[in-house]
Design a protein that fits this description.
The strands form 4 sheets. This protein has a 24-stranded antiparallel barrel. β26 and β27 form a beta hairpin. The protein is mainly beta. It starts with 9 loop residues before the first helix and ends with a strand.
């Protein structure tokens, strides 16, 4: 990287003094948050050096204050942000001064800059205090972007670094926007130049516009976050505390027409179980593409035909903590990611991975007349339907209407038709904020399902109340999901349950410069019923009492700990095919498996996370105690370890390693019931800003002992087969090794060249890395180009 010294000559000082005199200065600490920025006819070169005349006339934002870990105090490092706009773009120039530590900046991949120092620009182009577009850059100008739509989510009721740091809701980094940026590290800090075209934004149709604005600066050497607009953590909304860009006029988005054709080819290999022979088949080359049209300043239409939805990296392995809960995997496909924030709701009633491989799809997203709108229509491939020979057809509508200063009400309608079968869901939801720190949220809905000529209907409901206090906080919710509720277009992890949740918290703050920055104690009360038992007034299934203590220490260290008291009730549906052969005189009786009525648990957890040092950061979680032995529905002794480290030996190479390990033993004889291990190693090398190389290796090992009735008779467990026969529940073992390799050239969103390889292999003895047998593998090439008209 190149260091550029700050000129200290008398002439340079005089130039800076004249520039300051010509600029309008707005101090966040002085609450000068209504900003008028100049409109200039200029088109500077985006080179990371703020030396063009336009920057001398820009408005200057200064006076940042700390937001995390403690809010309301002046930031330790000063930051100046210069802002102006032309007819076609808005420009930001940042001078981030650093007198207390080293600047962290690497040549990272897109959206992977948050281990570096970074500047985050939140533009609320609809000025509604509810949603904003994020444009972020690190000291070298590497980009990240996304959308923040405030919905009342928070990190309470948990443990670890996320609970310790807390604060605003997380940003969805899925969307990619076209903008230009360049930066460089200097002797006094770093300097960044950003140009955001109006083509990349949705905004109001008014001739004169006011936009919400806040700037966030993350400093890694001390683990602090500062904002230009003084933001309090004790608030129901982060965005509602933003400043304002006043009186933007005569801005031109122009024709927004993005054409993104793509060509893909694949060569898939697989093992034929019948012949044990390995063979390959070619797919493609296939031609597809996406179209994005800005119908108006605030509405965008997307269309796709035979798109390539190849995964360039496998979904990360997950350990199953509760087999009653389905695993969730996030969306990664570009067509669905654009505007995905418009489909959010308290229940995830829109889960676009239900549309597996569409033949064609269209999508309309945007905001009009104070209403967020999202519409999807798609025809999926026939291989993905529930009824053979029929293409699933999806229709999805999501709308949210702004009410008052920070509240909204919305509706979700989904329809999935598979030939004669169908699933329809309708729901109404709302969020209301009041007295700055309180918010309330609800959603109620109903599903109608017709399958094999049989109709069923089921309700869902959700209510939440939150107090985001500086010292005393509260989160509470009450949720119900009928066992008759079904969604063919969304994701519900577990149906047939109702849950009451209460989480009061108390925070204390240390002195400036002291070892303790902030500590939060919270007490979680969580009760779960089977849905029909709640309706009938019967007893609860699960009870939980969790004590959590999380702290942020000087320099960005986070530590946490907790103790959990729990009681879990027997769920007969999990063991419906379990049988025991019970001796009866000279013979045996086949009896159903019942298990204990309740299992009581007690376990502790500790967490530790380092600051984001210049070259590495790490985290670890350790949980140990009595927990459910789910395979046998008996008490078990559980040990759980999660650990991760990211190593950045230079500004181009990143090496990440994670390790998940879970072991359950029987308390009666200390034998192992189940053990799971998932190590994952990632190498990433950024050859240049657009050229990226990645190698991922992941090993999934899972071993389960022969099952027995450990809680009562110690008799072996048999599994009832479809034909009525019984099969001994013997030992099970999986040793799967997955490899992904990717070469990527991506000069900007939409323009990419990918060449990749992925394979799954198994071996007879785990972690020997020998005698592998391939299950499947694939080579793929993808080329796409973004034509922006």
């Amino acid at each position: 990287m190149r260091l550029r010294c700050w000129a200290g000559t008398a002439a340079a000082i005089a130039l800076l003094a004249n520039t300051a005199a010509a600029q309008q200065v707005y101090s966040g600490l002085s609450h000068q948050l209504d900003v008028t920025i100049p409109r200039l006819d200029a088109d500077p070169v985006i080179d990371g050096q703020l030396d063009e005349p336009a920057w001398q006339q820009a408005a200057r934002l200064t006076g940042f204050s700390q937001y995390s870990p403690t809010d309301g105090v002046p930031a330790a490092d000063s930051t100046d942000v210069l802002v102006w706009y032309s007819a076609t773009a808005i420009y930001f120039g940042v001078k981030a001064y650093e007198a207390h530590g080293a600047v962290h900046g690497t040549l990272a991949n897109r959206d992977n800059i948050f281990a570096d120092d970074n500047i985050q620009i939140y533009l609320s182009t609809f000025h509604d205090g509810r949603q904003a577009t994020l444009f972020a850059v690190n000291p070298l100008g590497v980009q990240a972007d996304g959308a923040l739509v405030e919905s009342g989510k928070s990190s309470g009721g948990t443990f670890g670094p996320a609970a310790a740091t807390g604060g605003r809701e997380p940003v969805d980094l899925s969307p990619d926007y076209v903008f230009q940026s360049k930066g460089e590290i200097t002797a006094w800090g770093y300097e960044v130049e950003v140009r955001i075209p109006f083509k990349s934004l949705r905004y109001q149709a008014a001739a004169v516009q006011d936009w919400g604005l806040d700037i966030e600066r993350d400093v890694q050497h001390d683990g602090t976050t500062a904002t230009w607009a003084p933001a309090r953590r004790a608030a129901s909304s982060f965005l509602a505390q933003s400043g304002t860009l006043d009186g933007l006029t005569d801005i031109h988005r122009g024709l927004v027409m993005d054409l993104n054709p793509e060509v893909t080819g694949r060569r898939d290999g697989s093992l034929d179980p019948a012949t044990n022979a390995y063979g390959y088949r070619n797919e493609g080359p296939d031609l597809g593409g996406n179209l994005r049209w800005g119908v108006t300043n605030n509405l965008t239409l997307n269309a796709t035909v035979t798109p390539d939805f190849s995964q360039v990296e496998s979904d990360a392995g997950q350990i199953v903590f509760d087999p009653r809960q389905a695993l969730y995997f996030p969306e990664k496909r570009p067509f669905f990611l654009d505007g995905l924030e418009f489909f959010q709701s308290p229940f995830q009633l829109v889960y676009t991975r239900q549309i597996v491989q569409p033949v064609a799809a269209v999508k309309l997203t945007g905001k009009a007349a104070g209403t967020n709108i999202g519409v999807i229509a798609a025809v999926d491939g026939a291989d993905n339907g529930l009824v053979p020979g029929h293409n699933p057809v999806f229709g999805i509508v999501r709308a949210q209407r702004d009410i008052g200063a920070g509240s909204k009400i919305g509706v979700v309608l989904t329809d999935r038709t598979d030939g004669p079968d169908l699933n329809q869901v309708g729901a109404v939801d709302g969020r209301f904020t009041f007295a700055k720190v309180y918010s309330a949220q609800f959603q109620v809905g109903m599903s109608h399902t017709l399958q094999d000529g049989v109709a069923s209907d089921g309700p869902i409901w959700y209510g939440r109340f939150t107090r985001a206090g500086h010292t005393i906080g509260l989160q509470s919710s009450f949720t119900g999901i009928s066992d008759r509720f079904a969604t063919g277009s969304g994701f519900i992890g577990r149906t047939g349950v109702a849950e009451a949740f209460l989480d009061p918290s108390y925070s204390v703050y240390g002195k400036a410069g002291g070892a303790l920055q902030r500590a939060t104690l919270d007490v979680v009360l969580d009760r779960t019923w089977q849905y029909q038992h709640l309706i009938q007034g019967l007893g609860r299934q699960d009870d939980k009492l969790h004590l959590n203590l999380n702290a942020v220490l000087k320099g960005g260290w986070t530590v946490g700990g907790g103790y959990f008291w729990e009681s879990f009730g027997y769920d007969s549906s999990l063991f419906a095919n379990y049988r025991l052969l019970v001796p009866n005189g000279g013979g045996v009786d086949t009896v159903a498996y019942t298990g204990q009525a309740h299992i009581s648990n007690g376990e502790y957890v500790v967490t530790l996370a380092t600051p984001t040092f210049r070259h590495f950061d790490a985290n670890v979680l350790w949980l140990q105690g009595h927990d459910e032995n789910y395979p046998e529905w008996a008490s078990g002794d559980l040990i759980l370890l999660q650990a991760g480290i990211d190593w950045r030996p230079n500004d181009k190479l990143r090496i990440g390693a994670t390790y998940y390990w879970q072991r359950v033993k029987r308390p009666s004889d200390r034998s192992i019931v189940n053990v799971g291990r998932i190590p994952r190693l990632t190498f990433e090398y950024q050859v240049s800003r657009p050229f990226f190389v990645r190698l991922v290796g992941q090993y999934v090992q899972n071993e389960t002992d022969s099952l027995r009735d450990n809680s009562r008779t110690e008799l072996p467990v048999y599994l009832l087969q479809p034909g009525g026969s019984l099969l001994r529940a013997g030992p099970q073992k999986t040793d799967l090794f997955h490899v992904d390799a990717l070469l990527s050239y991506q000069p900007g969103p939409g323009t990419v060249v990918y060449a990749g390889y992925g394979s799954n292999q198994i071996e007879p003895v785990g972690f020997k890395f020998q005698d592998f047998q391939r299950l499947n593998d694939a080579f793929f090439v993808k080329v796409s180009y973004l034509f922006r008209m």
